[in-house]
Amino acid sequence: MQLAAQTHRPALSRFPTGRNTQLEALVKSIRASLTLRIDETDHIPSIVASQLRSFLSARELLNQTQRQPNADHCQRHTLYRDEAGEFTVLALIWLPGQETPVHGHMAWGAVGLYAGELNVTNYEIFGTHAGQMHLKQISEIDAREGDVSSITGGVNDIHRIRNTSCKPAISIHVYGMDVAPESQSLNILFPQ
Predict the structure, then answer these.
(1) What is the 3-state secondary structure (H, E, C) of the chain?
(2) 78 in a structural domain
(3) 47, 37 Cβ separation under 8 angstroms
(4) Which residue in 100, 107, 116, 140 has the fewest CB atoms around it within 10 Å?
(5) Range(s) of the domain holding residue 143
């Protein structure tokens, strides 16, 4: 008797590159933040950013695979994807000169600088013309190891991140949505 082949959908790998006690502790604290009362949900990004700060000094938070760069662009490593799709934790590895386009995000977020330095330029929309949004620069920040920030999501938090230093940098990002590997569904891109 021959059994018919079954098609199996691969299970979501919550920790794609292996389990890690520091990362698991970070995930547990993020999950606890998501159980806040409904009147406190506007504060979730800043609460998660504050929690993230306490994990940025844990050298074992990332393994060697999660620290690998890409010579062509900023390398994104998925550290954790929540089973319910409520949040994703990423590590971004930046070589000198690498940068993002000007963008916003589809969800709230928290970002912490794990190693190195990054330059963040913030923008706001100051009008539209012929169907195009026009942006103006409102601030520029030089972030250093240990710095954290929160992101509200949408067009109220438009920015570009660059590694203007001569050394690699690593940032840890938490976003309030499921971000599939290699997916660009997280970003809202703006013309430069």
Answers:
(1) CCCCCCCCCCCCCCCCCCCCHHHHHHHHHHHHHCCCCHHHHHHHHHHHHHHHHCCCCCHHHCCCHHHCCCCCCCEEEEEEECCCCCCEEEEEEECCCCECCCEEECCCEEEEEEECEEEEEEEEEEEEECCEEEEEEEEEEEEECCCEEEECCEEEEEEEEECCCCCCEEEEEEECCCCCCCCCCCEEECCC
(2) yes
(3) no
(4) 140
(5) 21-179
Distance of CA 20 to the CA centre of its chain: 18
Alpha-carbon span 75 to 70, nearest angstrom: 5
How many domains does the structure of the chain reveal? 1
Q: Residue 18: what are its φ and ψ, rounded to 5°?
A: 105, 155
Q: Which residues make Cβ contacts (< 8 Å) with residue 4, sequence separation at least 6?
A: none
179 CA to centre of own chain: 9
Which tens digits make up the pLDDT trace of 26-84?
Answer: 999 999 888 865 556 678 899 999 999 999 999 899 999 999 999 999 999 999 999 99
Q: How far apart are CA 148 and CA 40, in angstroms?
A: 20
Residue 82 phi/psi, 5° resolution?
-65, 135
* pLDDT per position as a tens digit, 135-151: 999 999 999 999 999 99
Q: Is residue 187 part of a domain?
A: no
**93, 75 Cβ separation under 8 angstroms:** yes
Q: Bridge partners of 76?
A: 92
